[in-house]
Every structure is written in C-alpha cells, then in structure tokens.
C-alpha cells in the first residue's frame, strides 16, 4: 500500500522502494535481474512484466529493449530474468519502465542516470532528480477494461457496457508526493480556487471521499519539498513519468536554464516555466538566488481542463519547514503551454556534447558538425486518426492500422526471424512505397499522399493488426506524423454513430532504438513545401516529442541500428488502443536472441479483444470495472 497523494492504493515497488534510481557509468555493462514477486491474482501482473530502457539506443542489444511480445515474453510471477547490455549512450537522464501492459501506471518505473566515464562537462553544485507524474486512483489494468469495450456514441455509460475513457488524473505528484484533488489552492492563499472536475476527485466505490485519504492532515502523506541552500546551483533531472498529462512546471520566482533534453546537451536556454510531455526529460539548472524562504512549485496538466494540479514547495534550508509559501498559491490553470516558436529554441549543443557523443550520434554527424544527415530520399507520412473499427472498438491508428493485436504468444521479433513471410501477412509499409521530396516538389509523384498496408493502394478502412515499416542500409529516413480528425480516413462505420467525431488531441510520440532530429513542426497539414522551412543546422535531437493538436512533426533518423523498434504515443491508454507502428531495421543483421529468455506462457490474453464483463469475471474473479461517473 502506498498513499502518495493521501489516498491509499496498491503500487508496484522494487526492493521495497517506489521508483528506485539505476545509475550506470557509460561503457559499463548494466546487469539488472528482475524477480517478479508480484502476486498472481492481481490483474496487473497475471501476464507478467518487462523492463524497457527509455531513451537508450540498445545498439547491439536489440533483444533487451523490453517490449513484451515484441522482443520477449513477459517475466511471469515467480520467475526472474536478467537484462544485460553495455551502456554506450550519451551520459544524461533516462528512465526505465515496465512495457508489458500498463504496469507503469501502477508505479513500475524509475530514473536511469548515465554518468560520464570522464569528467562532467556541466558546472553545478548539486543535483536532484524530479519525477513529475499524474496519478490515478484506479488500478491501471482495470482502467483499460473500459477502453476495450465497444464504442457507442449514444450509450457511453458504465451500465450500458460501452467504452469508458480513463478521464482525468486525481492528482499530480512530485517524486511520488502530492495531495489528492489539488486544483486551486484557495484555502492557502488569497486566490480564488479553481474547481476540479468530479473525475479528478474520484475515489473507487466503497471508499470515503473525505477521511482519511483526502485529508491534508493524513500523516501518511505530505507535499513534496525540494530543499536547497541559498547560493547554490542545482542540476534538476526532470522526467515526466505520468501516463496522460503534458505538464507545465514552474518554480515561483526562479527561472530555469535548460541544459539537456532527452539525455543530450542543449544550448543553454532560460525559461520561466518548463513544459515537459510524457517520456521526455529535461535537465535544468536552478539557481537558489532569491531571498531564503518558501516558494511554490507547481505542475499544471495542459490540454486537460479541470485536471488536478501539482503543488509542492521549493524550500531554502533554514526556512520554516512546516509552513507553505506566504504568497498566494499560483493558479496554474492560467498558464499557456509553450508555443512552437518557444519549443524551437531547444537546440542541440555541439560544445557541451563534446567527446561524449555516442556511437549513434557520431553516425548522425553531418557536414556541419551536429547537423542532421542530409538528403533524405525517403519520406514516410503517418496519418494519425482515432477510428471506430467495424468490431465496434474505438482505436488509435496510423495510416488506418491500429497496432494492438499479437497473433500468438511468441515474440514478434522471433517470428520474423524464423519466417520472413510473416511480414507479408501483416500490414506493412515497404521501401518502394516511400516518396521523395523531389518527386513531391516537382509534382511528379504518382503516389497518393497516404502510404499504408501491403498493397499498392492505401488501406481504405481502418483495421486492427500489426503494422511494420521496413528500413535499413543506413538510409536517411524522414517520418511525418500528421494529426488528423478522429474520423478521417473513413474511420467511422456505423451510420449516425461517431461520424461527427472530428476531435484531435496532442500526442507525445516516442521512438525506441533512436534519437531523431526534429526537422520541423507546424499546424494544419504538412506538405512537401514545408521541407523548405526545416532546421537542418541544429535541430533538437530527441526520443520523445509532441505532435500537437491540429499539427504535424517531421523527424529524421538514419536506419543503421538493427532491431524492431516501436514508434508510439507515450500516453499509456493510447498505446493500449493501438497508437504505434513497428520499424523493422536492418533485419538481416539482427542477432539471435540470447538463450535464457523468458519462456512464453501457453496462453496470452493481453489486450487481444474487447473484454466483456463476463471475461473479466472469469479471468479476475470480479467484474473489475472501475465505476466511473
Ligand atoms: Cu517509454 Cu515504448 O516507451
């Protein structure tokens, strides 16, 4: 039991600790043995767990990337498995997390810090890691049950058995500390409080809304304090470890200097608040240069009105340790997210990177030093929609394929190696169907603008399956992720149901196996002329990046890292609903899996179909649905 936000719930702990940190020096072999001691009767863990190393290229260690049923079968309760690979990555801030189902939402993650094997290039006095996370009171797996149920726009209630969204988080935590349903801190200051929407105040049936879980007097919980000494400079390693919310983080009265993004050094950039999306990391310098005292630390989930916000305290040592800041509590609902222009100021830094560039970055070096490799001959356009499938399930799809089914319990990578025809049986984007900029710009393209599936024509109807992109040969690949209305690409079948679903939202896309150059982003529809505005000099080099509502991003990477790499939205519930595509890279060079990999269970039921209440009852002994309003 944990009571991180004063509400008691079950969380996954590691060595009796929540979110423990792994530290490794570059060049060392990292060896992590995972003993799955989770109970077998807990819904989250019946299928087992895996560990993914978020942000690591996993060069030469592709089988240890840790996506269940893609690279390995999960580690089932009562068994163990050892991840073992050499860490040759740019020193910086990364993280590890579960990647079998949604166990990450139950707390199965932690920071992964890579230390330089020489001296640290940055100057600072001390460092702290700051995990920012939205927090739900429901058990993660139970929250997904509702996502698998059929969508019927006319019957979206729990009683009708229809699709149920997870709604808003109940709190925002700093390093696992926060207060349930903090929306506006009215009682502590003069500002008028902002009301949380009821979903943010939700407690499961049978639990008291008031005592003891919701009381700030609960001894089991406390606000997070970041304690600093006046005059010192702190390196904060900020990681958004939540499952849903893009956060804006502010320290009252203090600016932050961004010095690294997703592990890689950036040109120092001073900001008043830090925007950080799921999966992203920013290293920032915080100077304790104000009058000693207590200052507000706030995190505001953006694009989710009515969500709980996070309140903590930046405390100078010596300040009254039991007092909240004297100033009125900030009302973070009034903070705007960064604009694209602000985001564009985050640039990779050649000076700070120095000799610490890892092999893959070295391979990316262009004629201008750190510029991206030029002359991408191939461009892949991924249209992102939220279709309603003919099965009645609501999914997220890229080019009309929602990738969420696993046809057997064997890891996909093993199957591809064993039977190359496997790919032909699944949705696939093959190299010939790419287009190049020249063709687009000269109007010579006879190809349609939508590329998908394993046929000459675009996949007209949205389907569930597995979608692969085959790349390799060290080719420079551009990927455009284009946000489109929910029902675009013919995604809504049933007459009168959902055909007005034109909504869009932001998605934090994460790529396994690579950092990528963010060449550009924009609003509306991408077209080939956008390439003229790309930053080919010093763009951001990231592994997790936001595709905003009504927007697109263009990213570039070199296909020289053998493996099967997942490109997906880092909102856990969107990933669950199929928002991913697999890049099969340098297939011929992928090594054999090490011999000690986990045995696969005889049956694997993770997210295979709509889970009817009867199935859930049979599997878990109860109907298990969170009763949401
Ligand atoms: Cu951080 Cu595929 O994940």
From TrEMBL:
Gene3D superfamilies: Cupredoxins - blue copper proteins (2.60.40.420). It comes from the Eukaryota. InterPro entries: Cu-oxidase-like_N, Cu-oxidase_2nd, Cu-oxidase_C, Cu-oxidase_fam, Cupredoxin. Signal peptide: none annotated. CDD domains: CuRO_1_LCC_like (cd04206), CuRO_2_LCC_like (cd04205). GO terms for molecular function: copper ion binding; oxidoreductase activity. Residues 3-117, 157-319, 465-586 form the Plastocyanin-like domain. Coiled coil: none annotated. PANTHER family: LACCASE (PTHR11709:SF511), MULTI-COPPER OXIDASE (PTHR11709). Belongs to the multicopper oxidase family. This is Laccase. It comes from Elliptochloris bilobata.
